[in-house]
Amino acid sequence: MEKLKGVEEMKILVINCGSSSLKYQVIDMDTKNPIAKGLVERIGLPGAVLTHSITSGKKEVIKTEIPNHVAAIELVLKELVSPEYGALQDLSEIYAIGHRVVHGGEKFSKSVVIDDEVMKALKDCIELAPLHNPPNIAGIKACQKMMPGTPQVAVFDTAFHQTMKPASYIYGLPYEYYKKYGIRKYGFHGTSHKYVSQRAAVLLKKPLQELKLISCHLGNGASISAIRGGKSIETSMGFTPLDGLMMGTRSGTLDPAIVTYIMCRENLSCDQANDFLNNKCGALGVSGVSSDFRDIEVAAKQGNFRAQLALDIFAHDVKQFIGSYAAVLNGLDAIIFTAGVGENASNMRADICKNLDFLGIDLDLEKNKVRGEEVDVSKANARCRVLVIPTNEELMIALDTLELTM
């Protein structure tokens, strides 16, 4: 490509937009290590904050109003070249940009270089991922505006789950709806599930091809994947990221009749119902406190019944999926906890693992006090291991980006 240079000179910017967060890293592709990274939290919510750091150890925390993802990316790019806290002299040092994109429908089964046709396809998929595709698109547009001519790559959450068999991804609907509209289970968080499953094999000192794993990506958005031999065979999210676990603002799995019942009772249009299920339900709807599990945990400790109920429902949902996926896998070598809640909420991990001793799970409560570290938190003689593995979607996205832009 026009910007081709030696790998040792290449720096890849990875943008990972969540529904209310934005993670980023600038990765040196020679060492595969970040030279700058950060997290924008609570986008569009009170108390928004950017936490930015560079390899020298310098760290800056910026608390300011961040109304949307465009504003978040503009703030990030400004920070990357700031005189005191920046890692770059100029944005032109960035060779390419890799974006995590949630949903590509059946149009994309692998990562692609972004062009006008790809952008149109991403817009066409907004109705499948209304919480994520819009911020993904906004992030791409913001980078195009501020860094014109820099190659950009879309890395899709759905790709890892393409190994599922039809019995797992076809719904009990007329088959022609699958052929006509592409209605099927796609699954999401694939980049994360893939990364942590590979790390699990390293921690367990066993070949990935021999392992039966359940990966629990638990955050404001949450999904569980059954992984056999390094391949996804089942996952909790479905046609859209709305399915599966109750999440921050998403309902998760419902009796389908509930949707039409509420639409009739509340006189909701299709768009209003979609917005309701994605933005006003889940832990926010149950607790009445927040979509952030940290806020909910604080309220629960203060005696708020609905906040505690939201935590109990979430733990129950995860436990239920673990049990069913252990059956699908016909055994289980390890459970992996990752993402914001999975990596940091020791009480939630303990609640989920409670009474799963029939699977060989025996949690060491002292080891389980860890936050954000890669560690086995099981007792020494446990038959099924419980692993905490911080996800690194950014590195996997950077590798795909480099491959497609060289």
From TrEMBL:
Top enzyme category: transferase
Subunit-structure text: Homodimer.
Function of the protein: Catalyzes the formation of acetyl phosphate from acetate and ATP. Can also catalyze the reverse reaction.
InterPro entries reported in the protein's UniProt record: Ac/propionate_kinase, Aliphatic_acid_kin_short-chain, Aliphatic_acid_kinase_CS, ATPase_NBD
Molecular function per GO: acetate kinase activity; ATP binding; magnesium ion binding
One CC-aspect GO term: cytoplasm
Active site: residue positions: D157
UniProt site (Transition state stabilizer): H189, R250
Essential cofactor(s): Mg(2+); Mn(2+)
Reactions this protein catalyses: acetate + ATP = acetyl phosphate + ADP
Domain of life of the source: Bacteria
List of residues binding ATP: K23, H217, L218, G219, N220, G221, D292, F293, R294, G340, V341, G342, E343, N344
Organism lineage: Bacteria, Bacillati, Bacillota, Clostridia, Eubacteriales
ATP-binding among keywords: yes
NCBIfam families reported for this sequence: ackA
Example GO BP: acetate metabolic process
Gene: ackA
Compartments in which it is found: Cytoplasm
Record protein name field: Acetate kinase
Species assigned in the record: Desulfosporosinus metallidurans
Cofactor binding, per record: Mg(2+). Can also accept Mn(2+).
